[in-house]
Q: What sequence folds into this?
């Protein structure tokens, strides 16, 4: 497929870049497209203006014409004969983005830059076309072999590849998650018969092929009765227009020109997780054996020939990403795409960064924004990132975790052989060993929570940050349930969830799949944040439940709870959804949308594609998201027509609680609110206030709560004969002061 130069059409307030995919087809068609774009701009601008007097760059960006997914998507990891990577995880406007591209043969290729967004529901937009020079194409064919730099860590690195593609990022480029689509040009080879053909023959299992024949043998010679596919039945309706392509991901950060007026929301990609699961070269942090094309198809040079299943201890960002072949949920089109689409559909002023940006920029970067979002499967993080979030929250930045299994593995960064920073991610996963593995004496690259003596840094459980902690491993695809008593709380207002609960025996459901593929719990472990309320409650049996610090799993039962709490000093909110797939309730387009929650690479080994989820969105989840953003002081510029603006609470009265009964098995509490709201949580301390655990509603009165000892297995002390303390939290997050609770206890004892 050929690309021409770009055509720029001046508009009064911004520029629209329109590209003709094949210029020779029709000049008339080009002007028709321009007319359509202009019409969309006019109508969409009017809609934006009617919704907000403060249209922002995200609103302006998403007025532009989107690109159908059949043009921008690829199948799984794409064409393995044409792969590349960006020289850095993120760039700034005006910088020269550099890409190292490797082509296995001398067939021509071209490239196009896309940005993820809403764009009329398409999910991405063509931003620019890049025609590589003949010298760049030639250099891509002659790339050297990647290097196994360290045999003991299996560090496999392709930094020695030559830069064979560049793109000067426009000065007015909108911050976002971008990708280059590398694409073959010219006629398809004669033996290319598969729908979305990208050389998947190597992954086809023998039971799906003729005995004795190559797995990819063309069935066309069998055009006999009942050879249905060969006869033309079942043709893929949404096949890719050019499947011989692959993606190269990078982030464009917010322009320095916005320093005085930064975006309200800062979204961090889960790129460390993309790389942790990346097996290019043969191995990753999960070893080299598993589903996908097979380790050797990814180069094989990073494998230990004596132990092909051995995991890497270090992984390089200087490699193409092939993770989507076998773990698509751990790539940006799994959980990140629908979150990005929904935020931009509603005109939230948002900017984007990679994990390395947060590690390097620290709290100073985060403090410029009202809300920080951890998006997707944000499993791997550094101590700098952890600390940056804590410090930013103390300074007033709200933290939203649209993620689960978040901040689980502690990583550290090293420079690559070119001395570029943040290009080598180190994680020895020491929690999976009985001795320290990381050679740096005062470092730890196991789980943050690991409390064993070999961790020189000591435990730092992730629920101190997000309010929840990972316990339930893959692959879950559950609905989220909300009891009627919770559905009536203020943050669910206008969601319709209370009515839904009334019509469903007192328990409302939020669509199937929103709770998965891994999820967290609220655990009383001595690190639980104070004054935290539950927004949902979902029980599940037969889950893969963590048994130790993060190495061993067994069947178990779990209770998921979405949580919300407020920092006692800064007032910043923390919202922990405790699920990777929260965004599946917000927008329909994502990987796995057509497989009913079964991982797409397992549902159909021939196709992993972005498709609409037939389960649809869930308006209650969308309304809740609008409400919580508003509680954090952030409002949409172009809200969906069916969503209701949030009305701020004027309730500042704290609720009250007192102990009714304390026994060796449970503590009963009465709690009430007189400020116009409702009690949303009750917490109990049985050790004089050192640790606090949650109680749950008990009975039908609405004012009785009970904390049962058996619900808090990690609670080691249960001294109900001493000072049992309680505190209540209402649905405006007003929390009963502990000192007032102590004073009341003293008064009762003296009376």
A:
């Amino acid at each position: 497929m050929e690309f021409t130069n770009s055509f720029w059409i001046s508009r009064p307030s911004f520029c629209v870049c329109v590209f003709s995919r094949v210029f020779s087809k029709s000049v008339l068609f080009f002007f028709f497209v321009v007319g359509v774009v202009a019409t969309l701009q006019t109508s969409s601008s009017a809609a934006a203006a009617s919704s907000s007097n403060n249209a922002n760059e995200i609103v302006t960006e998403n007025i532009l014409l989107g690109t159908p997914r059949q043009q921008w998507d690829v199948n799984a990891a794409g064409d393995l004969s044409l792969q590349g990577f960006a020289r850095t995880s993120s760039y700034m406007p005006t910088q020269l983005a550099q890409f190292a591209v490797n082509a296995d043969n001398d067939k021509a290729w071209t490239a196009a830059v896309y940005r993820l967004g809403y764009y009329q529901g398409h999910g991405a937009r063509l931003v620019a076309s890049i025609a590589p020079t003949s010298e760049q194409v030639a250099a891509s064919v002659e790339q050297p072999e990647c290097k196994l730099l360290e045999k003991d860590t299996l560090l496999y690195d392709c930094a020695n590849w030559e830069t064979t593609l560049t793109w000067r990022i426009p000065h007015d480029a909108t911050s976002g998650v971008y990708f280059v689509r590398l694409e073959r040009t010219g006629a398809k080879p004669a033996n290319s018969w598969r729908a979305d053909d990208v050389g998947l023959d190597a992954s086809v299992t023998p039971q799906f092929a003729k005995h004795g024949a190559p797995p990819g043998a063309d069935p066309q010679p069998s055009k006999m009765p009942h050879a249905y596919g060969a006869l033309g039945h079942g043709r893929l309706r949404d096949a890719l227009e050019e499947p011989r392509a692959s993606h190269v991901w990078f982030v464009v950060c917010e322009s320095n020109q916005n320093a005085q007026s930064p975006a309200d929301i800062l979204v961090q990609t889960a790129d460390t997780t993309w790389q942790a699961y990346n097996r290019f070269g043969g191995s990753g942090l999960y070893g080299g054996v598993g589903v996908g094309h097979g380790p050797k198809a990814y180069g094989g040079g990073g494998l230990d020939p004596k132990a092909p299943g051995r995991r890497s201890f270090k992984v390089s960002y200087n490699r193409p990403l092939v993770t989507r072949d076998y773990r698509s949920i751990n790539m940006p089109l799994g959980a990140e795409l629908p979150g990005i689409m929904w935020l931009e559909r509603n005109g939230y002023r948002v900017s984007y960064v990679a994990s390395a940006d947060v590690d390097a920029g620290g709290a100073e970067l985060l403090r410029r924004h009202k809300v920080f979002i951890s998006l997707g499967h944000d499993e791997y993080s550094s101590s700098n990132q952890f600390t940056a979030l804590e410090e930013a929250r103390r300074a007033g930045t709200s933290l939203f975790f649209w993620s689960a299994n978040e901040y689980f593995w502690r990583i550290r960064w090293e420079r690559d052989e070119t001395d570029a920073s943040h290009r080598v991610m180190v994680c020895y996963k020491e929690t999976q060993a009985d001795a320290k593995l990381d050679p740096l004496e005062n470092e730890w690259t196991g789980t943050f929570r690991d409390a064993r003596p070999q961790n020189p840094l000591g435990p730092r459980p992730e629920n101190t940050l997000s309010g929840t902690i990972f316990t339930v491993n893959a692959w879950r695809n559950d609905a989220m349930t909300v009891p009627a008593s919770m559905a009536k709380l203020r943050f669910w207002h206008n969601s319709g969830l209370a009515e839904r609960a009334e019509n469903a025996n007192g328990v409302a459901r939020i669509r199937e799949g929103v709770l998965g593929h891994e999820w967290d719990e609220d655990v009383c472990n001595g690190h639980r944040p104070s004054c935290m309320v539950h927004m949902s409650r979902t029980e599940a049996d037969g889950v893969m439940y963590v048994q130790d610090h993060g190495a061993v799993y067994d069947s178990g039962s779990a209770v998921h709870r979405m949580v919300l709490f407020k920092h006692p000093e800064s007032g910043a909110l923390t919202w922990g959804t405790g699920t990777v797939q929260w965004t599946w309730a917000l927008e329909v387009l994502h990987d796995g949308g057509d497989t009913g929650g079964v991982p797409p690479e397992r549902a159909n080994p021939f196709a992993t594609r972005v498709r609409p989820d037939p389960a649809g969105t869930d308006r209650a989840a969308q309304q809740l998201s609008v409400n919580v953003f508003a509680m954090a002081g952030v409002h949409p510029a172009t809200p969906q027509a069916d969503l209701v603006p949030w009305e701020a609470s004027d309730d500042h009265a704290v609720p009250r609680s007192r102990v009714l009964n304390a026994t060796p098995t449970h503590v009963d509490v009465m709690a009430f609110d007189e400020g116009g709201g409702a009690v949303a949580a009750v917490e109990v301390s049985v050790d004089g206030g050192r640790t606090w655990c949650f109680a749950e509603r008990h009975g039908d009165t609405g004012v009785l709560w009970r904390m049962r000892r058996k619900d808090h297995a990690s609670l080691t002390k249960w001294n109900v004969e001493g000072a049992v303390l309680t505190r209540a939290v209402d649905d405006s997050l007003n929390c009963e002061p502990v000192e007032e609770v102590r004073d009341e206890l003293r008064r009762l004892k003296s009376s």
Summary: The CA atoms of residues 194 and 517 lie 30 Å apart.
